[in-house]
Amino acid sequence: MSPTPRPGAFDEMISEYGLSLEQNELDGLGKYLALLLDANTRMNLTAIRDPDDAWVKHIFDALTLIPVLSELGEGATIVDIGSGGGIPGLPLAITMPGVSFTLVDATKKKTDFLRDAAEALRLTNVTVICGRAEALGQDRGVKTSNGREGGTREAFDGAIARAVGRMAMLAELTIPLVKVGGLIVMTKGQKADEELGEAKAALHMLHTNHVGTVDTPTGRIVVLEKQRTTPRDYPRRDGEPKRSPLGVGN
C-alpha cells in the first residue's frame, strides 16, 4: 500500500514545533495513515477521512507529545489507553523507536487492526492488548519467592490517552498502570482547565499531581505526575469509573 502523501502544512508545522523527523519516519507515518484510512472504510476508526486533515489532526497532534514523553528517557515503557485506531501510540512508536509502547483497547476488531498495522510497519517496540483498563490496573501478576512477576499494575513509566473521556474518569483508568514518579499525559481540548478542576478530588485520591499544561497548535497537553502508590481499591470494577467518576458529584 502506497504511503499517504503529506501536505505542505504538515512539514511547516513540524518545523515550527521544533521537531526533526528522518525520512524513514516520515515514510512510516505515511504508510500508517494509508493503513488507517483504508481500514476506516470497513470499520469506524476515525471520523476524519480527508488525508490532509488526518496528517494534521491525527499525526501532528500525536507527535506534539514527543517533547513531554522524551523526559522519560530511552528504554521507557508507555501504555496507550483506548488506542482505537492507534492515535497517538503508533505515530509515536514510529518516531520514538527507543521507547516501548503497549496499545490497549477493549474492542477486538480495533486491536486486530493495531496488530496488523504494527506488523506491516515492522514495529518491534509495540505490544497490543485487547482488554479493559480497569482489569489491567488490578493485574498484580504472579507472586513468587522474589516478589511479584508480570502484571500491568504500576508497570509502566508513562501513560497516554486521547479522546477517551473526561479527566476524572480517565485518571482512574491510567494512574494505576504507572509507576510512582511516572507521567500520565492526556491530549485535551480547550476545556482542559475545566476538566482539571472537575478532577481535583480524583487526583488527590489517586496520589497524583498536575505538573503542567502545554498548549499546542492542535490542542492542550495535560501532564500529571504520580506521587505515591495507588490505593488498592482503584481502579474499581469494569465500567464503574465511567458511571461514577471519582470525586464528581459525590
Protein architecture, described:
The relative contact order is 0.13. This protein has helices spanning 8-16, 23-39, 51-63, 66-69, 89-95, 108-120, 133-137, 167-174, 192-198, 200-205, 240-243, and strands at 77-81, 100-105, 126-130, 142-144, 147-149, 156-162, 178-188, 208-216, 219-226. The chain is globular, with a radius of gyration of 18 Å. The longest helix is centred in the N-terminal third of the chain and has 17 residues, at 23-39. The model has no long low-confidence stretch (mean pLDDT 95). It is built from eleven helices and nine strands. The strands form two sheets. Strands 3-2-1-6-7-9-8 form a seven-stranded mixed β-sheet, with helices on both faces. A two-stranded antiparallel sheet has the order 4-5. The chain has a domain at 73-243: Rossmann fold (3-Layer(aba) Sandwich), CATH 3.40.50. With 250 residues, it is an alpha/beta fold.
Strand content: 15-25%
Distance between the termini: 51 Å
Average pLDDT figure: 95
Per the principal axes of the C-alpha atoms, what is the gross shape? Answer: globular
CATH architecture of the domain at 73-243: 3-Layer(aba) Sandwich
Give me the number of helical elements.
11
- The CATH topology annotation of the domain at 73-243 reads as Rossmann fold
Rg for CA atoms: 18 Å
Sheet bearing the most strands, described? 7 strands, mixed
Structural class: alpha/beta
What sequence of helices (H) and strands (E) makes up the elements?
A: HHHHEHEHEHEEEHEHHEEH
Helix residue percentage: 25-40%
CATH superfamily of the domain at 73-243: Vaccinia Virus protein VP39
Text of the CATH class of the domain at 73-243: Alpha Beta
Please give the order of strands in the largest beta sheet: 3-2-1-6-7-9-8
The parts where pLDDT drops under 50 for at least 5 residues are none
Number of strands: 9
